[in-house]
Specification:
alpha/beta
């Protein structure tokens, strides 16, 4: 089944690195989207929901934690799988975003194998 992916990170360079690493993992997506912050992501999701989102935590305008909460309020995105990708790695933070509705967490630096491990369960 064809899957769609959105990468949300305020750094265009980091979005490209994440995309390249996802490709290296062997996972394939029909459509990929990018957003530079939570507001941009919400705008794009309103028009075109995605299956999987990779989302940074520390971003201007709307951070990843706020974005997760807002996405979970959207009926059109109730099945979107959200995996946080961040340098932040405190267990308290991870537990918090999971409680808010995220489906997983990947800490930077990451590897293709880590994306494979975390995203494969959502590819069916």
């Amino acid at each position: 089944m064809a899957k769609t992916l959105m990468i949300v990170d305020d750094s265009a360079t980091m979005r490209k690195i994440i995309m390249r690493t996802v490709r290296m993992s062997g996972l394939q997506f029909d459509r990929t989207e990018e957003a530079g912050n939570g507001n941009e992501a919400l705008e794009k999701l309103g028009a075109n929901p995605v299956d999987i989102m990779l989302c940074d935590i520390n971003m201007p305008e709307m951070n990843g934690t706020e974005l997760v909460k807002k996405i979970r309020e959207m009926d059109s995105c109730k099945n979107t799988k959200i995996v946080m990708v961040s340098t932040e790695s405190s267990q308290e933070l991870i537990n918090g975003v999971i409680a808010d509705g995220a489906n997983g967490f990947i800490t930077k630096p990451f590897t293709p194998e880590k994306f494979q491990e975390k995203l494969s369960p959502f590819m069916n």
